[in-house]
Q: What sequence folds into this?
């Protein structure tokens, strides 16, 4: 199942006919599907129709208790929309040589594997960050996530100067890499 709590909430909301959840899914994903359809012999109206059908598929799946989404909502909607559009093109006998190469241009299965791999790597990184401990975790978050300067970090963490803070950041980063790769190796094997 998708591990993103926000996406879980959106799916639950969709299944319960929550208007806000439906609007959020629509707003976040429709432009991507519209681009897919328009770039492959379709119109804005075609994109609306295909996206609506893909949303119905997701809605029906979300209502099912057995459904477990193993990718992001956008990946799922993209894949369903792509398949629906290819089917529609075949039905309309618009299936030209340009569109035949479409499968090679947009390899959804590869993209899905890539997304799943990235999600797994993010989970391993999150686990490594949790295992890192303080003050390393806070120092790395301040630098990489909050984009604070070394001078600011030195002041906040009580280092005598920016160079000392930089040395500590390097040591913390080295420890994080060791934790990450040890856990990553165990995850992949």
A:
């Amino acid at each position: 199942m998708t591990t993103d709590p926000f996406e879980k909430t959106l799916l639950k909301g969709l299944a319960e006919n929550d208007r806000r959840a439906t609007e959020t899914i629509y707003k976040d994903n429709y432009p991507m599907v519209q681009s897919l359809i328009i770039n492959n012999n379709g119109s804005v109206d075609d994109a609306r129709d295909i996206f609506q059908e893909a949303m119905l598929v997701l809605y029906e799946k979300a209502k099912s208790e057995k459904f477990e989404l193993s990718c992001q909502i956008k990946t799922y909607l993209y894949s369903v929309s792509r398949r629906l559009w290819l089917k529609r093109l075949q039905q309309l006998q618009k299936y030209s040589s340009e569109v035949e190469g479409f499968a090679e241009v947009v390899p959804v299965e590869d993209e899905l594997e890539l997304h799943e791999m990235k999600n797994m790597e993010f989970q391993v990184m999150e686990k490594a960050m949790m295992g890192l401990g303080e003050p390393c975790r806070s120092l790395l978050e301040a630098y990489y996530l909050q984009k604070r300067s070394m001078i600011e970090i030195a002041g906040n963490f009580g280092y005598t100067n920016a160079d000392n803070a930089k040395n500590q950041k390097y040591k913390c980063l080295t420890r994080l890499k060791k934790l990450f790769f040890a856990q990553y190796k165990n995850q992949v094997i």
